[in-house]
Description:
2 copies of one chain form a homodimer.
Chain A (H helix, E strand, L loop, with lengths): L3 E7 L12 E7 L7 E10 L3 H5 L20 E8 L9 E4 L6 E5 L4 E2 L16 H14 L6 E5 L4 H12 L3 E6 L2 H9 L5 E4 L6 H11 L4 E5 L4 H7 L3 E9 L3 H4 L15 H10 L3 E4 L9 H14 L6 E5 L4 H9 L6 E5 L2
Parallel strand pairs in A: 8-9, 8-11, 9-10, 11-12, 12-13, 14-15
Antiparallel strand pairs in A: 1-2, 3-4, 3-6, 3-15, 4-5, 5-7
Helix pairs in contact in A: 2-3, 5-6
Amino acid sequence: xxxxxSRIALAxxxxxxxxxxxxxxxxxxxxxxxxxxxxxxxxYMSLDPYMRGRMDDAKSYAAPVPVGGTMExxxxxxVIASNSPLxxxxxxxFGMLGWATHACVPAKELRKLDPNMGPLTAALGVLxxxxxxxWHGLTAYGQPKAGETLVVAAATGPVGSMVGQLAKLAGLRVxxxxxxxxxxxxxxxxxxxxxxxxxxxxxxxxELRADLKDACxxxxxxxxxxVGGKVLEAVMPLMNNFGRIPVCxxxxxxxxxxxxxxxxxxxxxxxxxxxxxxxxFLSVNGFIISNHFDRYPDxxxxxxxxxxxxxxxxLEDIAEGLENAPAAFMSMxxxxxxxxxxxxxx
Amino acid sequence: xxxxxSRIALAxxxxxxxxxxxxxxxxxxxxxxxxxxxxxxxxYMSLDPYMRGRMDDAKSYAAPVPVGGTMExxxxxxVIASNSPLxxxxxxxFGMLGWATHACVPAKELRKLDPNMGPLTAALGVLxxxxxxxWHGLTAYGQPKAGETLVVAAATGPVGSMVGQLAKLAGLRVxxxxxxxxxxxxxxxxxxxxxxxxxxxxxxxxELRADLKDACxxxxxxxxxxVGGKVLEAVMPLMNNFGRIPVCxxxxxxxxxxxxxxxxxxxxxxxxxxxxxxxxFLSVNGFIISNHFDRYPDxxxxxxxxxxxxxxxxLEDIAEGLENAPAAFMSMxxxxxxxxxxxxxx
Lengths: 346, 346
């Protein structure tokens, strides 16, 4: 009898926030590895905000997940069968394994994991794409200078916490924004931010801006953009001349659909946004980390030891079981997680 | 009897497009040069879109002109009295002389003009701030590569024509946008653009975009932003991944007042604009040329000979008489000029 695997398929495209009905748990036989392919049994899979974008049928950095296709995502696991000289059973690897208990993938698309790099889950968060995203965005576009002020939202998440900790190490004042008093306490106590504001405590961007101004008495030099919406609106008038804005996400706008056409925030207009770029000489750079994998070895070399020494800390939220992945994902999009959201599969 | 001079004062702040009543022609005695100062008799003064911003009482790159103050602007003229070792009567100089027949300015704020650099007016246009703006924006942020496609509006103006000609010399496909068939013909015939679209022929950004798409079969790699509004809205969906957008102006939005808050274009929302930056990995850089004067010698060295040889061409619109400066300025803001707008004072 053929051994079975489970996967989560995209059952239908969401309009607005995804709902349970957009996902479908399916069972199928584990495929056989073709030439150059390996079968990986996934131990942990990653849940990330970008996956919301893949559910839409809109032009974005990557092709959308087809309806009926397996939800995309990174994962780490053990090679259980190999038809490639690159891997042997028992090796551990990271790759785009999808939302599934097993994956059949070309060996050359997998990255072998160094067992000395720390726990397996680190490859999904602090030393994986989110941590790398924070490091690359800050170093390549943020260009931090000691004494400057940086603001980052989703402060306890895997990107925000990396950005904030690196900026602190570089001598900046770091102000986080997070959802809820508990996360704010973690940002300052665990991650060493100078201050953290609870965006849920503010009804409007104007109110948030008033307290943000107090927390950033010298203005904002770097706004690491990963949420969009109210935070962006609060931040823009506080940006200093020659400010830098790396843009790696806008989770608050993802659910607005393809082009966010109906999602204009009160008070934040296209001309207003564009004018700020001009009159403050801002440098705004959109990026996705998959275009910059050439820098990954540099990232590991610089940040790996800091994680090992505890100089850079990280938090993980671990859900259990593939069947609970959709709920964990939907919760994450609403800020239900505190640290890196992971699903444990075995 | 003390010799008299004339100046144009800001009589009141405009709401929307400036009107004649916002300006006042005044006469006063020519001041005496203090220690380190010189008196310049202005021969030509420059009119530029940025001056509209100075009329508003809003945070911008520079302090607003106070009500009752002389309208700001660059000019070239002859030194007629000097209280500085740096200049002697008979020298020619460029400086921020204001909208006035004479100016009393610190000698160290003036730049002596090389009589071999070409006609005096070149210091206001092709080899002055507008030309320098085009060169700096293109080279520093546009990063042109042969075979790419560049779009620039106000194609026959002193910034747009510089950008387009430099890009052609670098091997790019260059598509201009201008107001009226006559200007479009000048863009292609005089300045060598590959194509030029008349934005007045399109009611909506969508219509403009359709023809722009045909004119840019490989998409747009560089959009040199100097107008905002409908053109930006038409361009954004056509931008290629890794596109660059130097932002040096947005004349179509200047009249919307301080923050352009009421000027949202139909269809172009802040989230839509921001999302394009993210999903296409755009690099957007706002700048004003006065922050980059350190590169001016490089500009003159590279572009000066090309202007002298005729490889880079330029057009000037010359109005006569200080009293006609407000009308020429108001006309320019509506696209009434074809080339660099200058006022001849003597």
